[in-house]
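Attaching the record inline, Q. Sequence:
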Amino acid sequence: MKNFHSIYSHNFIRVSACIPSLKVADPVFNVEQTLELARRASEAKASIALFPELGISSYTADDLFHQQALLAAVINGVEQIVEASRELTPVLLIGAPLRFEGKLFNCAVVIYRGSILGIVPKTYLPNYREFYEKRQFTSARTAIAQEVRFLGQIVPFGNDLIFNAVNVDNFSLHVEICEDLWTPIPPSTYAAMAGATILANLSASNITIGKADYRRNLCALQSSKCIAAYLYTAAGPGESTTDLAWDGHAMIYENNQRLAESKRFSDEAQIITTDIDLERLAQDRMRMTSFNDSVQAHLDQVRTIRPVEFEFTIPDENTSLLRSVERFPYVPSDSAQRDDHCYEAYHIQVHGLMKRLSFTKTQRIVIGVSGGLDSAHALIVAAHTMDRLNLPRANILAYTMPGFATSDATKSNAMKLMGALGVSSQEIDIRPSCLQMLKDIAHPFSDGKPVYDVTFENVQAGERTSHLFRLANLHNAIVLGTGDLSELALGWCTYGVGDHMSHYSVNASVPKTLIQHLIRWTIHTQQFSDATSEALSSILNTEISPELIPNQSPDDPLQSTQQIIGPYELQDFNLYYTTRFGFRPAKIAFLALHAWSNRSLGHWPDGIHELQNEYDLARINRCLGVFLFRIFQTSQFKRSCIPNAPKVGSGGSLSPRGDWRAPSDAEARVWLDELKLIP
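Structure, as predicted:
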C-alpha cells in the first residue's frame, strides 16, 4: 500500500467550503480575500475549495452588473486566481458574472492548476419577493454554444458538466448555483445519476428567520436522494445590507450526514474543512437498485451530461483523517440521538415478538436466562411484550440452567432479574443430563479426565436448548432466542441443538455493543422497577463469558469470550464496515486506528467511562484477522438457517432472508491477503 496513513489511499478526499470577507463591486479586494482562503485550503491539503455565488464581484451589485468597468475588473480578477492556482492543491470553484453570446451569465468558474476546467452558468434565476436576477442575468438554458473562449482557452460551458479526476476513483464533481437547489429537479440530480459523487453549490442566499434550517434540510435531502456529498456556501460579511442581511452559512453533507457547518453571522472570513468518503458513496449507489432504476428512467437526460477529465495531483505526505469516526458505529455518541435509537430498537423487538405471539395464538414464552447480557435483554423485551399484550408476566417461563462452570455471580444475577420482573422462574441443573450424554458418547470427562474440548462445551449448550424446546412443548409456548448479531457474525454459537436455535429471536440483528447500551437505556429511563435496574446494572458489570469450562483452582481467571475472539467493541466496528459498506480490510483498519488509537480523543457514549479502551494497529489487525476468517470462511453455515428475527438497525442483519446472502463454503483468502499489506 502506497501510504497507509493518508486519507487519499483509502478513497477519501478533503474538501473546504469558504466564506471570504468581501466588498461590494470591488473585485481587487475580493480576489485578495478569495486567494487567502484558497491558500488556507491548500495548506490543509484540500482537493476542492468552494466559494460563494458571484464572490468576485459581490452578489448585491444589482444594476452595476451592467457596468463594463466592473465586468472587466472581474475578468482580471479571475485571471489572477487562475495564475495563482498553479501552486495550490484544490480545485477552486469561484463565482463571477461573465458575458458570452451577448448575454450576462451568473457563473461558477472551475479552476485547477493554472487552467479553467469549465464554466457553469446558473440555470434557475429567482425573480420573486426580494430577488430580481432576471433583470441582470440570463439562464443557462439560453446558451447556444457548449464551449466558450475565455482568457485564451476554449472552455466547456454549461450546467451539464461533470469534472472527473481520472486518477482518483469516484472523484466526480458537479457544480450548481444557489436557486438551482431550490427547484423540484435540481441540475445536480441528473449529474448524480450520471456519476457525480460531489455536488457543490455556490450560493449567496440572504438570511431570514427560519431559512437556515430550510437550507440544512435542502442540503441533507439532496445529498441523501443523490447518495452524494453536498457542499454549500453562502455569502457572508461584506454584502450590501441596503435591503437584505447575510449570515455566511456553509455546510458539508454526505448522504444525509452533516460533516461540517460554519458559524453563522461571523464578522470574519471562515473556512470549514472535512473529508468525504467517496467509496462509501459508491458502495451505497451500487447497492441501491432504485437509484439505478432512476438512471434508467431518465436515461436520455442523463446521457446529455458531459464529462470533463483532469488529473488530480494527490498530496504525497501523510494526510490524517479529519472527520469523526464513531467508536461504536451502532451506538451514536450524541445522547439525545442515542436515546432515540435505543427507544426504536427496543420497540422494534417488542413489536416483532408481539406479532409472532398474536399470530401463533401463543400466550407463553420459554426462555433460558444465564445472567449474561443477551438473555437479560431478551427477558426484558419479553416482559414488555407481555405488558403490551395485557398478559401476565408469569406467562414467561424463565429457566436458569447451571452447568459445570456456572459462577455464583451469574446465577445470582439471573435469579435477581427473574424475581424483579415477576416472571415464572425455575432452576434446572443440567449437569446430570450432560454427564449422561458424555457417558453415552464415551467422552473422557465421563471417566473423570479433565478434558474440556468443544464437545464438552457443546454438550452443555445443547442440553440447555433441548430442555427449552421440550418445556415449550409441555407448556404450549415458544422458545425465545437470545443470541445477538455479533455472535452470529463470528459464529460464536452452538449449531442446531444449541443457542443457535429457537422458535423466534429478538436479538439476532442487535450487536453486542448496542445490547449493552440498550440495557443502560432501560436503566436510565426507568423502564422497570428499581430492583430490575439493580440486577441489570450488575449484569452490565460482569465479564462476558460462556461459562462452559470449569476453573481448576479458585485463582484461575474466568473463561473470557473476548480473550478468544477479540473485544466486541472492535469486532462490532469490523462487522459494521464489512457488512454495511463492503470496505477493504485496509480501510477498516485505517478507520479503526483513527477511532480507537487514543482514548482521550473524540466522544464516548455515556456510561462507559471506566471502560474507555484504546488499541494500536497491531491489535486492530489481529482482531480484524480473526473477524475476517470467521465471518467469511467458517461461520456462514450457521447463518444460513437462523430463526426468524426482526431487523433492527440500518447497519443490517445477517439473515439469509434479508441483508446477507452468502455461500457457506467461501474462502477468506482475498481479505486475509490484503490484511498482510497493512504496516
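The mean pLDDT is 95. The radius of gyration is 30 Å.

More tomorrow.
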